[in-house]
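lol so apparently i was supposed to do this last week
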Amino acid sequence: MKNSSPSVTTSTTDETIASFLEQVDREKMPRHIAVIMDGNGRWAQARGLPRIEGHRQGANSVRAIIEAGVELGLEQLTLYCLSSENWKRPAAELSFLMYLLERYLVDERPEILRQDIQFSVIGRIEDLSDAVRREIDTTRDLSSGNGGMRLCLALNYGARGEIVDAVRHLAERVAAGELAPEEIDEQLLSDSMYTAGMSDPDLVVRTSGEMRFSNFLLWQISYSELWVTEKFWPDFGKSDFIQAIREYAGRSRRFGGLKS
Ligand code: IPE
Ligand code: IPE
Ligand code: MG
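anyway here it is w/ magnesium ion bound
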């Protein structure tokens, strides 16, 4: 019997995106990949560096994976950057993460626009600083007419909080007499999430070997495939991303039915 637990993979490939695209069955490519970018702190600690150096280095992996997503023709890439639980961390680490996010949004804006990316965010953005919100709004507005890959950053994001926000919104509509309880179905709940209008992730990638979801997109990943690598996020590169997609393309997704 096949082991049903997800395997942890360490990449050894060094394949280019062009040669991968020549071989892969395009029908089997994921449309939407969501990534839990984990292990920045451990990457730094393993080198005797402060944790923030791992976050700084992790920004380079973000750049590489966004570029890979565009080259691969993905419809959407969603990146888990900051969870609603990450506020438990020391103030110094959080303030560095905010600084890095603001710098990233400014520095990467020309590249995002050049690559025709549509930029969006999910999470309780209202709790972020004015400076970060301003940069988010600018990139979102400038990229709104773009037709390429959708890039969504999950910032101050928590799936349970998202579900609470959606349910509260629907309850308000019911209380106002705009909506009958029996009109609430899976589609309406999906349309009430931060991710309204986005497809569900086909594939969830997690780095650093952790076998958990850490409150990420719990509603949307109910039928996503999971791929985990032992590599820490700052070591994760395009060849690892290709390996995840190759393994995804080889899987049989049945959604509760039988193999066709
Ligand atoms: C992921 O790396 C980045 C964030 C959660 C912001 P971590 O900071 O969680 O690194 P580890 O897991 O402690 O190594
Ligand atoms: C998940 O990583 C959140 C992000 C990658 C932004 P964490 O490091 O916060 O998750 P746990 O604490 O190991 O579950
Ligand atoms: Mg972590």
